[in-house]
Amino acid sequence: MELKVVGHRVKRYDGLAHVSGETRFVDDVIIPGTLTVKALRSPVSKGLVRGLDTSAAEAMPGVAGVITAADVPCNAYGMVPEQPVLVAEAIRYKGEPIAAVAAVDEDTALEAVTRIRLDIEEQEPVLDPLEAMKPDAPKVRPEGNVYMYGQRPFRQIVFGDVQTGFKEADLIVENEYFHPSMEHAQLEPQVSLAVPEASGRLTIHTVSQALYFHLGMLCGILQMEPNDIRCQAWAARTGSAWRHNAGFSDLNLAGGTVGGGFGAKNDLHADHVTALLALKTGRPCKWRWTREEEQLYSTYRGAWRMTIKDGVKKDGRIVARQMKSIRDAGSYTSLNAYVVDKHCFLAAGPYFIPNVYVQGYCVYTNKPPASSMRGFGVTPTTFATEVQMNRIAAELGLDPWEIRFRNAFRLGELTPTGRVVSSAALVEVLQKLAAQAGVDLPADLKALTSARKGEAS
Amino acid sequence: MAEGGFYTAASPAEACALLARHGDGARLLAGGTDLMVAVNERRFAPQVLIYLGACGLNYIRVEGGKLLIGAATPFAEILKSDLVRDQAPLLAEAVAHLASPAIRNAGTVGGNLANASPAADSATALLALGASLKLTSPAGQRVAALEDFFTGPGQSVLKAGELIEEVIVPAQAQGAGWAYRKLGKRKAQSLSVVSVAVYCPLADGKCRGARLALGAVAPTPLLARKAAALLEGQKLEAGLIDRAAKAAAEETRPIDDVRGSAWYRRRAAEGLVRQLLGQIAGQ
Amino acid sequence: MYSIELKVNGRPYSVMVDLKTTLLEVLRDKLFITSPKVGCNTGDCGACSVLLDGRLVRSCITNALTAAGREVTTVEGLARPGEIHPLQRAFHEHYAAQCGFCTPGMILAAKALLDENPEPTRDQVREALSGNLCRCTGYVKIVDAVMAAAQEMAGAGALKAGRG
Which of A25, A165, A189, A313 has its CA 20 to 30 A from that of A39? Predict the structure, then answer.
């Protein structure tokens, strides 16, 4: 059978459109009558909204609509559904959106935002995760500043017994690692265009990387889940005048053309706001974040503090690893809990360590929510564990290549999460890499395979 | 309040007259690479713009041993100019590290200096070369040494209604040593964290009239006079270079900002001066 | 408001602008030419790059009034009917575009380079593109594409795949 795709070099189906400028990104979708959206954002990291008066903004010529928390049918969403679309009362981070305006042009929208009267009772924020973990720290969220993994305030991995491992070790190598927060800085900022269709559907041109996640979340926010009692009560309280009890089929997410995401677009940033304004005004509404908003308020990789304590033998084998990691999650859970999971699962890296104990903390602070970024928690782990390998090698007087061969997974060994390694290739990859880098490995390392451990010990 | 408007000045004199007539709400516009950023960020709303793109201020020529550069000359022109490469290679080197190709196609030397950022990349090299500026106003013309031009971050001696017409750069002396280095967070298109330009004429192997200029380490681009004085009449050797580098670092008054700490800037300034003087000594 | 005339991709246009209108806004919002992108609006990322009288500029910080009477080229103006420009072909063949957002600006920066220096080295390509950010590709394939296009445009024969 002749294969037409597998084994052939296939061009990107969107390549010609990219190079001819025809690719239509969300901001390139032009619909006459589209309103420009701008948000009023909290100037403080923590506080309570005591007064919010949008009447002057609403009265401005050229302003088609203003929304606040009162306009949101179900004002709680997220992987853990706790994040408001617009702040109702409790501000959790500087820049958190409190209101949004749809107007005929950018100047009018920006002016209207300045006319919204906002009274805030400012509160003392907590900005350092180590401070946030203290019992007397200001509460970022009512449930406390540390995410609970079941009964524990951390994700725990237990494999073998590290204390026994440390006793067997010839040397203990302990180091601290700090990975700062990182912004994706994808070229295309957050942008959303919500269009109320004549058919009654709402189309949202979205940059989402997670169309089905967001379809579900948007249906929840717009109260398109008729059986959600909490949402029905919210809708009744706000007396919102638009449609209820609609379903997935009423919301059309037009997406898939994304100008870079890398995890930046796994969270709702603009779609919920444009959707609400489109429904309220009956007109297409577009919100394009500025680069400054992107840099300051969009989701990002939260910072990590990691401590790795390894028990090692003179020949370079790691016999025990104890790791404690603290992730600065910002003010909402979002994907942070999952990020911590993945971070911890990979604590041993591509190496076999017979005794492993990991604690991973997901800690809240009064900063914008952190979330997914390329590698999803594993990249910071790798940074720390690979530097740790080199430090171990240095302390033992071993070559950094050798120590990796020594510890590399072999077939049939177990990961710290109890999975059997059924496909291992680090040994062969290192051998190939050495050859490409012009590094002449000693014969015993060249002879190793992933099928069995080396004899030297 | 003056009436709004966009004027394309036909001459520097006309530009000055317009500037003086329209007062505070008026701005000169050449490449716009600083002004339009402020406009886009809504930090500034222009009422009157006076465009300098067609008033004869885009030129590079040599007269009487000096390089004369019109204030509205884009950096791209300066970079490709044989005259600049021959007469003031230190300036050409600094401009090569300024921003990026697209910005250099529009941004002008006059705009860069008038914006008066302490990190202005052309300022460091021009200070080291002892440049001066021809300033024009409705009242007439005056020449100001560049080392007297900057008075604070974003501030200069320019009076209301006054513009920079020309940059006057003495040609580098035969056999003079020179070197430039800029540290930034990226290799291109990056605001200086620290920049250093050194110009060191030599007579019988001894420094005569050396000038050391540093950028982004003080409220204005900085001429390190004490460090330069140490070099006067001396041969460049390791001990002297070390003392000069330390003296230069002591003259800096850096701040902490998002690009670097004062601590780092002081040490980096010392390191760069040492490195560049060492480079010159080895030439 | 002022009325200005300018040419874009060979066609004459007349648009209304004010003192703060940028060339990028003219292209995208008034002429619906959307290949130059809003990446930062401060001249830092290069996604808005266009050629103005053949020179690479940042349309997001080019005051529209200063573009009056001048010629703008965007990627839409590179392709002749029925065939695409060698740079466009090379970018496509060499997978130099992933998300595609930086691509229009990147191609124009490459064109500006090749117009002035038809046989650049890889370092010269990197230098010429140093003001255009790409967060997807890591730049290597972009440099490959520009080198390949340069070869084709210099008449060196068939397009070679891989590193030039």
Answer: A25
Domain residue extents for chain C: 2-77, 86-153
Interchain proximity C55–B76, CB inside 8 Å: yes
CA distance A304 to chain C (A): 23
- What percent of chain B clears pLDDT 70, i.e. is strictly above it? 99
**What does the pLDDT look like over A268-291, one tens digit per residue?**
999 999 999 999 999 999 999 999
Question: In which domain, by residue range, is B15 found?
Answer: 5-51
Helix axes C140-153, C103-116, angle to 10 degrees: 40
Say if residues B99 and B107 touch (Cβ distance below 8 Å). Answer: yes
Q: Is the pLDDT of residue A146 over 80?
A: yes
CB within 8 Å: C65 and B76: no
Give yes or no: residues A349 and A390 share one domain.
yes
Q: Do A291 and C42 count as a contact with CB atoms less than 8 A apart?
A: yes
Whether this prediction's pTM lies above 0.90 is answered by yes
Residues of A in contact with C38 (CB under 8 A): 27, 189, 288
Return the structure tokens found at A150. 């079941």
**Chain A, nearest residue to C81 by Cα:** A20
Same domain for A340 and A445? Answer: no
Asked if A177 and A312 sit in the same domain, the reply is yes
Q: How far is CA A94 from CA A123, A128, A190, A295, in A?
A: 12, 15, 18, 13
- With a CB cutoff of 8 Å and minimum separation 6, the contacts of A148 are none
Residue B111: what residue type? Answer: G
Q: Locate the chain C residue with the closest alpha carbon to B189.
A: C131
How far is residue C106 CA from its own chain's centroid?
A: 6
Residues B181 and B112 reside in one and the same domain: no
